[in-house]
Amino acid sequence: MAKSKKRDQWEIEGDAHTLVEAELIKKDKGRFKDAVTQLTKENAARKEAIKP
Asked: Where do the domains of the chain lie?
């Protein structure tokens, strides 16, 4: 099944924004630390949520 060009463009734009944000976060050590802390909390919550 072929993807639509509109969907491809949406994915490209989303990826571009994500990459720009990642670069900005990498350059700001405090922001990077806060982002890692947030991701750690979210991952722990997901792990807890899927426990049998």
From this structure: 5-49
